[in-house]
Write a structure and sequence with these properties.
By secondary structure, the chain is mostly beta strands. The protein has a single domain (2-140, 155-165, 181-240), classed as Beta-galactosidase, Chain A, domain 5 (Distorted Sandwich), CATH 2.70.98. It is built from 2 helices and 26 strands. Strands 9-10-11-12-26-20-19-16-17 form a 9-stranded antiparallel beta sheet, with no helix packed on it. Strands 1-2-3-4-5 form a 5-stranded antiparallel beta sheet, with no helix packed on it. It has a 4-stranded antiparallel beta sheet with strand order 15-24-21-18. A hairpin with a 6-residue loop joins strand 19 (166-170) and strand 20. The radius of gyration is 17 Å and the shape is globular.
């Protein structure tokens, strides 16, 4: 079943999946399978609201000082266009400054997000790509594992860790998640916090494992240039184990 409600929200329900997409920012508002919350929208401890969004042509603060880029890129706050939809898929697109991004969402045995980034301008462009995934941790994130390794401390220290093509995510109190990626090499670990009197207090209801095409800072290197007409394809797939 495909429902479009509100001004910008599209909801798809099929095969025990629930997917909600906001055309304002091209964001994943929620992803649920068999009642298990996987990706969601959260009120953060720093009084911001967070949910899953794409970062193009830069991730975090890379390129902000050197090239005047917007933090995490402008696409997460732009209005996206609905290209097509049916009972189990949805395609949206957005073009800013000659860079076109297409997100194609598909629900079946697994949730699939295909991403196309294309340089449609008349000049070469610096590009990095990341997904700012907000994973639901309603039972807390102490003891979270990625491919069998406890990564709890990483949500405080914020490292970039290597991803396999197929990864296993284990969150407390939840079924394990099979997380497949294509052309995402790394993941940044993070969660929101507030600091008071030198002590940090962390959000507990979500964590961000953010798949990155390349390391943070890549867009400031000469390897980040893509030529006129060149395109990049990436994807992530999610299912319950």
């Amino acid at each position: 079943m495909v429902l479009k409600w509100g001004m910008n929200i599209i909801k798809i329900e099929k095969d025990s999946w629930l997917l909600e997409i906001d055309l304002n920012g091209g964001r994943i508002i929620s992803l649920i399978k068999d009642g298990q919350k996987i990706l969601g929208t959260f009120d953060r401890i720093d009084n911001k609201k967070g949910n899953t969004h794409i970062c193009v042509p830069n991730f975090a603060s890379e390129g902000v000082e050197d090239f005047g880029f917007v933090f995490h890129g402008p696409f997460r706050n732009a209005e996206w266009s609905l290209v097509s939809q049916n009972e189990n898929s949805l395609k949206i697109s957005c073009e800013i400054d000659g860079i076109e991004v297409v997100q194609d969402f598909l629900i079946g045995n697994e949730f699939t997000q295909n991403i196309l980034v294309k340089n449609k301008s008349g000049e070469n462009k610096r590009v990095n790509v990341a997904m700012h995934n907000y994973w639901d941790t309603e039972f807390g994130w102490q003891g979270t594992k990625l491919n069998g390794v406890d990564i709890t401390e990483g949500f405080k220290t914020n490292p970039e860790v290597e991803l396999e093509n197929e990864n296993i995510l284990e969150f407390p109190g939840k079924l394990s998640i099979i997380w497949k990626v294509e052309n995402f090499k790394l993941a940044k670990l993070w969660t929101g916090f507030r600091e008071e009197n030198g002590e940090k207090f962390y959000d507990q209801k979500y964590v961000c494992l953010e798949p990155e095409m390349e390391f943070e800072g890549f867009v400031e290197t000469n390897e980040s240039w893509i030529e006129m007409g060149e395109e990049i394809n990436l994807s992530q797939k999610i299912s319950l184990k």
